Amino acid sequence: MKAFFPRLAWSRKLPDIRLQEMDIDKLFEKNLLIHATELEKQFPMLPNLPPEAQKGLLDMMFNMGPNRFNKRNWGRLYEALQNQDWEKAAKESHRKTPNEDRNNAVRNLFLEIKKKQDS
Any idea what DSSP says for residue 96? Predict the structure, then answer.
């Protein structure tokens, strides 16, 4: 039997765990809704932000969770959002844990807003 977690020898004893694609989608949607609801609590100004900012913030909340992504830990980002300083928001959205592609995608969402305003 193939190890479920290759680095953990005991996992070879686990059955092959699989989910149907429909179940994966349902779990994802449920999890996304939980994080979106938490995002609304922590960022009351969320409905007034451009869609790109909403998407970037949801990405951050979804990947970090409310214990890590909150005003206490991300005060400079929160301040940039309050001031609609999209360049600063782009800079302050950088995280240590995801890969650079993910960081760049969120940063670019904030820079997109600035670009629209400047044109």
Answer: S
pTM to 2 decimals?
A: 0.82
**Torsions phi, psi of 68, nearest 5?**
-100, -35
As a whole number, mean pLDDT of residues 63-85 equals 95
CA–CA distances in Å: residue 119 to residues 71, 111, 115, 116: 31, 12, 6, 5
d(C-alpha 34, C-alpha 5), whole Å: 27
Question: Is 1 a residue whose pLDDT tops 70?
Answer: no
Residue with tokens 């300083």: 85
Residue 79 structure tokens: 């301040």
